[in-house]
Amino acid sequence: MNWKEFCKHLDQENVKIEELKQLAERDFNKYGIYPGSINKYGESWLFIARDCCSKSLVVYGKNEYFEQFDGTEETINGKHVKICGLNDDNCSIIMKMFPYTKPVNHRGKKITMGLGDRLGLASPGHLRLIKDMPVFPVLAQQSIRELNLTGRNYRNVLSAAAWAVYQEGYTSGFGADGDHLKTPEEIKMALDNGFTMITLDCSEHIDNKAASYSQEEVNEKYMSIDEQERARLENAYLGKTFKLYDGTEITFNEDNFRRMVLVYIDAIKYTINIYNSLLKSCGRNIDFEMSIDETLTPTSPESHYFVASELIKGGVEITSLAPRFCGEFQKGIDYIGDISTFEKEFIMHVKIAKTLGYKISVHSGSDKFKVFPIVGKVTEGEYHLKTAGTNWLEAVRIIAARNPALYRRMHKFALENLEEAKKYYHISADPSNIPDIDSLADSELPVLMDKDDSRQVLHITYGLILKAKNQDGTYTFKDEIYSTLHKYEQDYYNSLINHIGKHLSGLGIK
Ligand code: ZN
Q1: Which of 141, 406, 480, 495 could form a disulfide with 177 if both were Cys (CB 3.0 to 4.6 A apart)?
Q2: How many angstroms separate the alpha carbon of residue 300 from the centre of ligand 1?
């Protein structure tokens, strides 16, 4: 392994760490050492090095943690050296030694961005892009659905992000979001693993049916709410007008008040309960996001105002709130819908959020190029935006370019299993718009990642692709996906810099 040749430079007297980093950068192809990962700890050096097939943490010389690392020991230049895998246990030690590799909450940060990394390989590319930009990255961001579909757990997800932070020497802080969590057990699991943000999905407590009740049904169900509670709500809202910070008014009238209460009342109670019992008592400041985006109809300004002010009264400190916007935010493709209606509604949501003291969060924010300029402008640069699947699609793009035979197999498998994947994700892709892959030359394959139909098909089948196994128990695609992306890592980072970079410039971030 070539990094061993580098070690003689570590032994020079009075060697400066900056010089070592410059050398590692200039001769990256020779040594395979990530410049940002070179650190001195006591009398020892640490760095991450790559070879043909994997990456390792090298601990060169003994330090107080040396014995705890799990790895193989060698002697190089008379020094004790340990070569360690980038696993969860070693990551826990790195977090103790270098606290910047631990996630932190994002209080006070204006632009925060979820950069979900389903493979655990994308974060270094994201960090190289945003390192000098006013963006706080939430690198670890996965929903339970994504954990199940990728076969990972929260510890793996956080370790991958922390190793990326260590590799890149990124010391400005990052977050970890337990995304779309529904139950106390899920939230506990994320908190126990050190996650710093919780996105509560209370869709199971939102009564979507209430939107279509007849007026009699509404009245009847409304009367079943506790009398005192009804009186409290009516006193607080009914016939009342609330002024937002700029003078815009929100009024609650009899017509839709009862219906609105029925839709959201259980979700509000559930959220207050979860927040007070789990988040308040966990001993850390958690970024709490309330997501009401998985409803059937767009969130009205009145509903948004009502839900948020009830939560605040119940003691909930909201960091961000995700309403359901008009139009469609489908996975991996641009916004579908009327952009001027979106802008009008978005302005109202932002005003409410500003008045009540939190940020608006935009979910399924990958590839929504039509809405980015509006988000950047209307929020005046204060928002949370989540992306995830698009980072997987950039990985697929690299596979299509660099390992066309593997891509062809993945593509056929994705089409064959599309119906299964549609159980988890709603998309409008029409497979008949995708050209027969056998008629395409290798050089035409990456272009499929620029077309909506093929993007969506590959987007939503990621879990089935990653988990598929052959009869002998080996993975059909997974190992080859990882080895291809290891080999062409630089390409993957560059394509993320380019693609997420387009997101940032659309948002007006420089
Ligand atoms: Zn969402």
Answers
A1: 141
A2: 17
Mean of the pLDDT values across residues 25-50?
97
* CA distance linking residue 358 with residue 351, whole number of Å: 10
- 389 CA distance to ligand 1 middle (Å): 12
* Residue 289 among the catalytic residues: yes
Q: Which SS3 state, helix, strand or coil, does residue 43 take?
A: coil
Contact 225, 261 (CB under 8 A): yes
User: Which is nearest to 104 in space by CA: 39, 171, 21, 32?
Assistant: 171
Could you count the other beta carbons within 10 Å of the beta carbon of residue 253? 12
pLDDT at 1 over 70: no
Distance CA 102, CA 95 (A): 6
CA of 431 to the centre of ligand 1 (A): 25
Catalytic option among 117, 168, 177, 179 = 179
User: What is the model's pTM?
Assistant: 0.96
Q: What pLDDT does residue 255 have?
A: 76
What is the C-alpha to C-alpha distance for residues 436 and 104, in angstroms, rounded to an integer? 47
179 in active site: yes
**End-to-end CA gap in the chain:** 39
